[in-house]
Design a protein that fits this description.
The structure holds 2 protein chains of 2 kinds. By secondary structure, chain A is α+β, with helices and mostly antiparallel strands. In chain A, 34% of the residues lie in helices and 26% in strands. Chain A has a 7-stranded antiparallel beta sheet. Helices cover 46% and strands 4% of the residues of chain B. Chain B is built from 3 helices and 2 strands, in the order H-E-E-H-H. Chain B has a two-stranded antiparallel sheet. The longest helix of chain B has 21 residues, at 6-26. Chain B is elongated. Chain B starts with 5 loop residues before the first helix and ends in a 6-residue tail after the last helix. Classes of the chains: A alpha+beta, B mainly alpha.
């Protein structure tokens, strides 16, 4: 983007401008993050109260809050497919619970946890997405892309987990961007493999 | 899901910044304005009712660039703690 800024503008102003534009956009997205709940139960970016996970560390299976990762075409039951429909999702937890967990067990200092929280809220951490609170969603949460799982659509349609939030349009775009950053990365083609 | 062509996004990006520069030169505080581009709404049949993309005050390319440039990796102690205490915290 910086290449589009007129060359006559001093570099320090360019940096300030670049930062201010991006920060302003992010703050605007955070201030209007969700839209009214509707019937898009299993739409990408929707959060649901309880979806099944398995922990390979403890071999335990249970349910936790989750956010849908699969794209809307892949979760649309109307589309023809050669095998049963599975929905991919990842873990969602409260920011306060996340910080308490780190404080209790990670060995990180309070300063390190505070610095991590600041980066999470700026959406800078690769595998985490900050989900701010709102009038409807009372608490700050995080989506943890690296803690993912999947279930048959039949399971979801039978259990009908409670829908807890739907992303607003720009938050949805932010979600796709964050997903892309975590899951996609071009290799450095200039270097021999 | 495709919102627009890459060229469109880059065009938005360029126009957005140039407009922003003009705006910035008149205001010490940056404030995006409505209808900056004349092409206020972009909708697609891929999105369900209610999902309307509005680019008049939104620059997805700039946001992606900003996040990419500032991305940091999680501390390894975070993933280790998550794995060991996955069920203990909500």
């Amino acid at each position: 983007m910086e290449e589009h800024i007129p060359k006559a503008i001093p570099s320090d102003i360019k940096s300030l401008l670049y930062e201010s534009i991006s920060k302003a956009e992010l703050e605007k997205i955070h201030s209007n993050f969700y839209q009214k709940l509707s019937e898009h139960d299993y739409f990408q970016g929707n959060t649901l109260e309880s979806l099944p996970f398995i922990s390979f560390t403890t071999s335990k299976i249970g349910v936790k809050q989750a956010i849908i990762l699969s794209n809307p075409c892949d979760t649309d039951v109307r589309n023809k497919r050669s095998r049963s429909l599975r929905v991919a999702y990842c873990r969602v937890m409260s920011l306060s619970g996340f910080k308490k967990m780190l404080n209790d067990h990670s060995g990180m200092t309070e300063q390190e946890i505070t610095a991590l929280e600041a980066n999470i809220k700026k959406q800078f951490v690769s595998d985490l997405m900050y989900l701010p609170s709102s009038n409807h969603v009372g608490i700050e949460r995080i989506a943890i892309f690296s803690e993912s799982s999947s279930s048959n659509m039949d399971y979801l349609q039978t259990k009908k987990p409670i829908l807890t939030s739907i992303l607003a349009t720009k938050a949805y775009y932010l979600f796709l961007t964050k997903l892309s950053i975590h899951y996609l990365r071009f290799g450095d083609l200039s270097q021999p493999v | 899901m495709v919102y627009s062509t890459d060229a469109d996004l880059r065009s938005y990006s360029a126009n957005y910044v140039v407009s922003s520069v003009k705006n910035y030169s008149h205001n010490s505080e940056y404030k995006p304005t409505e209808g900056m581009f004349g092409r206020d709404y972009y909708t697609t049949d891929f999105l369900p009712v209610g999902y309307t993309l509005k680019f008049s005050d939104f620059n997805p390319q700039a946001l992606a660039d900003y996040l990419l440039l500032n991305t940091v990796q999680s501390d390894p102690r975070v993933s280790k703690t998550l794995s060991e205490h996955f069920w203990d915290y909500d």
